[in-house]
Amino acid sequence: MPNANNDSHTPPSTTELSQAQRRAVSELLRVSPVADDLARRFKEAGFTLALVGGSVRDALLGRLGNDLDFTTDARPQDVLKIVRPWADAVWEVGIAFGTVGCRKSDFDIEVTTYRSEAYDRTSRKPEVSYGDSIEEDLVRRDFTVNAMAVVLPEKEFIDPHNGLEDLAARVLRTPGTPEESFSDDPLRMMRAARFAAQLDFEVAPEVVAAMTGMADRLEIVSAERVRDELNKLILSSHPRKGLTLLTETGLAALVLPELPALRLERDEHHRHKDVYDHTLIVLEQAMALEAPRDQPGGGPDLVLRLAALLHDIGKPKTRRFEKDGRVSFHHHEMVGAKMTKARMTKLKYSNDLVKDVSKLVELHLRFHGYGTGEWTDSAVRRYVRDAGPLLDRLHKLTRSDCTTRNKRKANALSRAYDGLEERIARLQEQEELDSIRPDLDGNEIMEILGVGPGPQIGKAYKHMLEMRLEHGPMEREAAVAALKEWWAEQG
């Protein structure tokens, strides 16, 4: 792949660059049957086609997947005419922004017309205008490592902004000035943090400075687009890196203000752990407990990671300095659950996700009443009942919440939780705890009491459920007797 970049300054490592190019050749050979076939069709129609952006970056990193991004001088309607007879499926969701999507064999493909886009000072949507050259298209890309292209089928490598060198140096820069780039699309400031977290790259000092100075520009971007970038960051391999950058630049104060609020001022007379640093450690420890990607339900878990990130956000509001020098955070889990619900709702998360994460935040301290195993079987059943389908995540969150450097204390907590999990497993085997129901269902209760549907049957059902939680499974005779005894007490 000849390099079209004429810049003469010395690259950071010739060996690294050549290795990257060899990886890219290998990756491109893998996808070339599909890519070259499509490129020939564009050429026959009088247009050019190039692999671009993240696809080229990932090829150079040796991690190109089956999602391929292309750019072309063809307008969207021309793209549709070319891909419709060729692709297995075509979609036009992004056609207003110049993008046509399609599927061919195992590949998901997006073809975008050369373009430039910018925001005005108040718009939440970019204004799209089409360009006439690939160079014009690349200069509007977010970062130099995403501003490289490979023209097909010739395999000509185009890198006008030294993206290959920045890739080798593992640094994020913008093709033009960061101020121009972030003014065009303020969401790119979030992307800088996201790519730092995903790729484990450093962000160039001038980019960090622009992010800090222009953080307020993010306010014009829709909550949905901000949320999607935040999710990608949180689900990355190095979320601490991205979250730290958001916090230090002031972007977190707009996106997730509860996070920087955890950096509580220290008081020389009242000592407590750094809640902000503790939170990031809990997040990393929770990640370490996630099941591997190749296991069913494995890989990054957004619910667990959000719960780890938000589990202590109620602490700043509940901090109290006690007379004996201790610091207390009474009921911070309840306050935190309400704050979690409010923040996630504002970021337009789904109701189910809001409910699950809030529930985990609310329950994350429950285990600390377990002590050395003093809970009754009834208390264990209630723990399982309250966690419901979130029990496995609650196990992981609770274990992750131990960040003490006192090994003796950490080992004691770990042993206690081992004991709780063993008791849960034992009770589950005996009683099917996952689906705790009263020993009598609603129809049976109505038949025994001789009463039709209504509030009293609901109360009776709730009473029988409490009996089940308190005493475990009952024989039918005993359950009927208990129900009749309760009914007599109701008069």
Automatic annotation (TrEMBL):
Which SMART domains has this protein been placed in?
A: HDc (SM00471)
Q: Name one GO molecular function term.
A: CCA tRNA nucleotidyltransferase activity
Name the PROSITE patterns for this protein: HD
Q: Which cofactor does it need?
A: Mg(2+)
> What are the UniProt keywords, alphabetically?
Magnesium, Metal-binding, Nucleotide-binding, Nucleotidyltransferase, Transferase, tRNA processing
| EC number(s) given by UniProt | 2.7.7.72
Pfam families linked to this entry: HD, PolyA_pol, PolyA_pol_RNAbd
Residues in domain HD? 275-397
Q: Where is this region: Disordered?
A: 1-21
The molecule here is called CCA tRNA nucleotidyltransferase
Species this chain originates from:
Streptomyces hesseae
